[in-house]
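Supplementary Methods, section 5.1.

A reviewer requested that the exact input to the structure prediction be made available. We therefore reproduce it here, unchanged from the version used in the analyses.
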Amino acid sequence: MIKLLLADDQDIVRRGLKALLKTESSFNIVGEAENGETAIAQIPLLHPDVILMDIRMPIMDGVAATEIISQQYPTIKVLVLTTFDDDEYVTQAIQNGAVGYLLKDTPPDDLIAAIQAVSKGYTQLAPGIARKLMQTSVATKPTPPPGWETLTRREQEILALIAKGANNKEIAQTLYIAEKTVKNHVTNILTRLNVRDRTQAAILAHSFLGHETDTP
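The structure derived from this sequence is encoded token-by-token as follows.
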């Protein structure tokens, strides 16, 4: 059972999400919050697995709340669900620890699948969001992080596939290696790059591998 906390300042949105998600037997909606501060305050009591987080909210917005949650409760997955696909919002939310970024016009079945995926540790980005991240990263040309040069050729191949949204099973099938081997490589990649999850690794891949992330 996946425990969900819904954070959105619009009551009608929370009601709609609750009505939709209650139809999925694997979900348990444990609480609601009208802003980021309230969401954080409820975590010790509700112990959610996934938080659906809006971006623009009063008192504390979703970007700030996501940063605090990722620092204080690193096992909780924050999936941003908003109407805004502004480059700055997307980049800040992902950098602050969100494991996914979806728009509110996402089809219901896709939303349910995305929640199930992020609960297992996979990254979920709305169509076009990954390209925004890539374009932003390339435009800013950040300095390569410590450890980048230590990645092996195989690790770079896996990182490129992560950036394209592939999960461990898909990577294993593409590279003809065992899924357990992929998991070991992913762990090494995160350690070498000093990033907390696959999403942040994907951002770095878009930035430093450039066109290579677009090739099989």
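Residues 211-216 have pLDDT under 50 and may be disordered. These observations are discussed further in the main text.
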